[in-house]
Amino acid sequence: MAPSLPLLLLTLLLPISTTAGPDPQCTWSGQDQPGTTTLPVMHVFSPCSPFRPRASMSWEDTVLEMDSRDRARLIYLSSQLLVPKKSIVPLASGRQLLQSTTYIVRARVGSPAQTMFVSMDTSNDAAWIPCSGCVGCSSTVFNPARSPTFRSVPCRAAQCSQVPNPRCAGTTCAFNMTYGSSTFLASLSQDSLALAADVVPGYTFGCLRHVTGSSIPPQGLLGLGRGPLSLMSQTQSLYKSTFSYCLPSYKSLNFSGSLKLGPAGQPVRMTYTPLLTNPRRPSLYYVNLIGIRVGRHPVDVPRGALAFNPATGAGTVIDSGIAFTRLVAPVYEAVRDAFRRRVRAPVSRLGGFDTCYVGKVAVPTVTFVFEGMNMTLGEENVMIHSTSGSLSCLAMAAAPGAGVGTVDSVVNVIATMQQQNHRVVFDVPNKRLGVSREPCT
């Protein structure tokens, strides 16, 4: 029997235990062919994940928690500016926020290799992992003393200027940043990084030394953003700045998808939309969302509400960390109203989800219309359902307005539930992003 949605949501919201190891029958080994490495991608609640939670809560509470989490994540994304700004620490009254991303891959660090299960984050650049002696880190850490290839990055190195808030700790480069509701201090380091059969010598990453808060992924993060310290930038000669992922549906028994690194083996039949560069938020993957349809009918979106604006940072991004798509308020309200007119049933509310229904309803498709490409979503990408099936909600919500925290402009975010069972290709050299339907399990 497939795990229920509440169990999926719990993985994103509850404090997680790192004591349980993955099932020995689980397959974490990747597959290789010339030019491509394929890694299994697991949801953190997969039976193969060491982070599956052991607690439980009601479906309603999980949805309320998720609403808080996604709002905080959006504030984090909107704060990623080149212009220095005050750190943001989103808070949710009376609720535990887990801001970490929700899909993990296996990486091996050092020589001999030490295995870490790291979150993949398309909106972050530098990788970081907990290291021995870290205060506030999980119990699973990387031990640099066991790796003769480990070395610290000196303050004079070029990489030191590529991290946020660089500082010197003696002669070693260090940096600190806010991630969700957490802050951390890390020393910039280098060691071998192995992904499947590929070994990247001298990979630059942050070695976590001090962490506050509960938002940091327990065994670290692999940054898939567009900055100079991201995986794609550091492995440009190997993977040609090209990757794709397929995120599994919550209906999948093992929540197993795939991350393909490199241009070979990517789908041949694929439609693309241009990747846009926003100098205000250079690490994010912007695309040009030009319209939305509910069923076959275009939604009457306010003029300019979807516009990409490099001067302010406004526009639409594809993200691997938000669960449910967030649209700027006037766009969301137009989509919601069009959806309600098609469904024609009494509406209820659950937290930030304001379009919920009791009992079975006929669900129309929702299509995101990008420049040069359409992405049509069926019911599994549009609705979240309670365990009993008695209540279902439109799996989208309004983004927090401008002025929240230090947000100077609001972004639309195409989230992971809407991406499930799609292959999403990030082709940076050709400045394009492709989406096609694919069973991801």
UniProtKB/TrEMBL annotation:
UniProt cross-references to Pfam families, sorted A to Z: TAXi_C, TAXi_N
A biological process from GO: proteolysis
Extent of the signal sequence: 1-20
Entry-linked InterPro entries: Aspartic_peptidase_A1, PEPTIDASE_A1, Peptidase_aspartic_dom_sf, TAXi_C, TAXi_N
Keyword Disulfide bond: yes
Domain Peptidase A1: start-end pairs: 103-436
Alphabetical UniProt keywords: Aspartyl protease, Disulfide bond, Glycoprotein, Hydrolase, Protease, Signal
Active site: 121, 319
UniProt superkingdom: Eukaryota
Molecular functions per Gene Ontology: aspartic-type endopeptidase activity
Family per record: Belongs to the peptidase A1 family.
Protein known as: Aspartic proteinase nepenthesin-1
Source lineage: Eukaryota, Viridiplantae, Streptophyta, Embryophyta, Tracheophyta
Gene designation per UniProt: nep1
